Amino acid sequence: MNQDVLTGIVIDERVELTTRDLCRACATSTEWVVELVHEGIVEVRGETLEEWRFSGAALARVIRARRLQRDLDLNLPGVALVLELMDEIEALRQQLRRL
Amino acid sequence: MEFKDYYKVMGVARDASQDDIKRAYRKLARKYHPDVSKEADAEVRFKEIGEAYAVLRDPEKRASYDELGANWKSGQDFRPPPNWDAGFEFRGGPGGAGGGFEAGAGPGAGEFSDFFETLFGRGGFRAEGRGRAQGGPGGPRGFRARGEDHHAKVAVSIEDAYQGAMRTITLREPQLDDSGHVALRERSLRVNIPKGVREGQRIRLTGQGSPGIGDAPAGDLYLEIAFEAHPLYSVEGRDVYLDLPVTPWEAALGGKVKAPTPTGAVDLSIPAGATNGRKLRLKGRGIPGTPPGDLYAVLQLTVPPADTDAAKALYRRMAEELDYNPRGRMGV
Q1: Residue A50: how many other CB atoms lie within 10 Å
Q2: DSSP conformational letter for B50
Q3: Cα distance from A19 to chain B (closest Cα, Å)?
Q4: Which residues of A touch B217 (CB under 8 A)?
Q5: B202, A60: Cβ pair inside 8 Å?
Q6: For the whole prediction, is pTM greater than 0.90?
Q7: From the centroid of its chain, how far is CA B144?
Q8: Disulfide check for B268: which of B190, B193, B229, B259 has CB 3.0–4.6 Å away?
């Protein structure tokens, strides 16, 4: 057993990921991430692919998009629609809980 | 070992067509997909469905499963008959199950049941793509590539998120051994869980993924945070909810009551005339952070039992003296 205590970085909204970081972490191709960006599934800052920066929240979204596409055999507009509807449900649920 | 009735799991008849099976899978996958479903047992159900579909979608696996006969019942103690699989060509093969598992997605994830493994071998599950074996020995000489990133889920308590904690986690990951078979390797890591983590967030541990090939660096390990179920609190994002029982007189008259919070008990002011389900917000007492979340105490009115003469007398007096009909607006 490894006795060292490991300290990691919490990937939250303050963390910036490059396209390369994101692709590596999600085990996806750059082309696929580019498609996600063009479909509006993940937001990005910067102009060119090299300058693109993703927030930590994009990581969870990309992983989720990949699972939905793979498990439910959805196309990207379908994935985008599911994710947007889920965001909306989540926001409504939160409002409901605070009533 | 328990027998698994894959037809029952999928809700299809034994003579269902491949199209029927596909349709049933799609429908169940949408219902129980852990990213979409709010069903409590979604993850378990989704794995079962994935396993059942991995067998029934594949004509060879389905035919050999059918060979076991139709008399088996779910959960029945099962031993495979000798040579039941003679003549089928799948054992140890690459499989290609469509269960939607992420190899190494978490402790225990990515595995099928013992029942499945006994019948179809461990090679029957999805070890493609993200399989972590590619970084192992046998890579072309002189080639260098950074190791793959890994993912795992780690369950921590709500208190850990308030205070931070050190947790030992055990990960099991499928790996190809020298003979090309998939075996599970266990490893334990001691990890600092920083204060303020939220459910669904990931912690990146540099260099804890697959080893690099050549002199290239190892990949990273991403730990996804999940909260263990707590007897008192539930969490939504940064906010924490507590069901707080109150007596009728506390609710009617108001006043201070003690309420537990993950950082210790606090005095909570109940406003007079509070109703059941009323939410009282304790600002900044949720998961720590910038900004911190809030803690909501949800009042649960409880009625004391009328189990003594004195208690019964009190209730009777209330009935006599209070002019109160909770059904007045119903016209009765």
Answers
A1: 9
A2: H
A3: 14
A4: none
A5: yes
A6: no
A7: 37
A8: B259
